[in-house]
């Protein structure tokens, strides 16, 4: 294979790996934001659940105060009942006692309802707290993984830079210039495998003469359509059914 062609194929691999690493690193703030968003949602659920429990308690306490008021009145009526002189007075005070008892009964029913609801709300709060704890644990693990990944990405970027510098040193400067110009114009991909007579990146069919030259891998040949530098990978096992069904043109 042409030495420069071999070098730019290796260069492309390094550049693509570097781009992937840089893209992954650039995603970190987004990933951190998503992570914090999930944590915030879990915190909010806990806060809301606590608020519901507190509202329930306050409502219940307010009713308990009402019960106390009615009980106070009830005992006064009962004292009055002991001291009444006439039948009419007795009936009147009995009526008040009945009314107060009815009020207390209905308030106590509502307290019971609040107590049942309190059990549900407390359970919901505990579930929300458990979900937050799980989310916090997952976030901690994600952050640790992200930091490890980031370190290894930075290390591999440094390694790539060293290897790239070495490759560039051995490369013909004209070919390097061509490679870098195409990479700039073509989204970072300056080389393309020619497969079955087609440029595998832009999918345009190559002229037979061009493809025949590319097959030899002995010259720097560009795709007529996307200008990428073409190379050919000889099939490792030409007799497989797969390659028979896709004959080279
Ligand atoms: Zn092409």
Beta content comes to under 5%
Shape: rod-shaped
Poorly predicted regions are 239-249
The proportion of residues forming helix, as a percent range, comes to over 70%
Helix-strand pattern:
HHHHEEHEEH
Structural class: mainly alpha
Largest sheet: 4 strands, mixed
Mean pLDDT: 94
Count the E strands: 4
Bound molecules: zinc ion
Rg from C-alpha positions? 41 Å
Q: Largest sheet, order of strands side by side?
A: 2-1-4-3
Terminus-to-terminus distance? 21 Å
Please give the oligomerization state of what you see: single chain
Count up the helices: 6
Characterise the protein shown here.
Strands 2-1-4-3 form a four-stranded mixed β-sheet. The longest helix is centred in the middle third of the chain and has 84 residues, at 87-170. It has helices spanning 3-26, 28-83, 87-170, 173-185, 208-216, 241-245, and strands at 191-195, 198-199, 221-222, 229-231. Helix content is 77%, strand content 5%. A hairpin with a 6-residue loop joins strand 3 and strand 4. Mean pLDDT is 94; it is low at 239-249. With 249 residues, it is mainly α. It has six helices and four strands. Zinc ion is lined by residues 192, 199, 201-202, 204, 223, 225-226, 228.
């Amino acid at each position: 294979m042409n030495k420069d062609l071999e070098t730019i194929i290796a260069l492309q691999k390094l550049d693509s790996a570097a781009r992937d690493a840089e893209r992954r690193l650039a995603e970190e703030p987004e990933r951190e934001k998503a992570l914090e968003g999930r944590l915030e949602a879990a915190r909010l659920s806990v806060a809301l659940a606590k608020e519901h429990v507190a509202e329930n308690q306050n409502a219940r306490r307010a009713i308990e105060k009402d019960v106390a008021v009615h009980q106070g009145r009830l005992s006064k009526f009962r004292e009055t009942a002991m001291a009444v002189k006439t039948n009419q007075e007795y009936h009147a005070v009995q009526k008040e006692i009945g009314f107060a008892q009815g009020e207390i009964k209905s308030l106590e029913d509502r307290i019971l309802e609040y107590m049942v609801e309190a059990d549900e709300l407390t359970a919901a709060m505990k579930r929300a707290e458990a979900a937050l704890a799980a989310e916090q644990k997952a976030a901690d693990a994600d952050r640790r993984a992200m930091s490890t990944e980031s370190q290894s990405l930075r290390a591999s970027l440094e390694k790539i830079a060293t290897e790239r510098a070495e490759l560039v040193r051995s490369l013909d400067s004209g070919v390097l210039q061509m490679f870098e110009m195409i990479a700039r114009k073509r989204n970072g991909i300056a080389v393309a495998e020619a497969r079955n007579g087609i440029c595998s990146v832009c999918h345009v069919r190559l002229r037979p003469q061009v493809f025949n030259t590319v097959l030899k891998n002995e010259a720097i040949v560009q795709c007529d359509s996307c200008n990428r530098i073409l190379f050919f990978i000889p099939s490792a096992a030409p007799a497989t059914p797969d390659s028979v069904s896709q004959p080279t043109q």
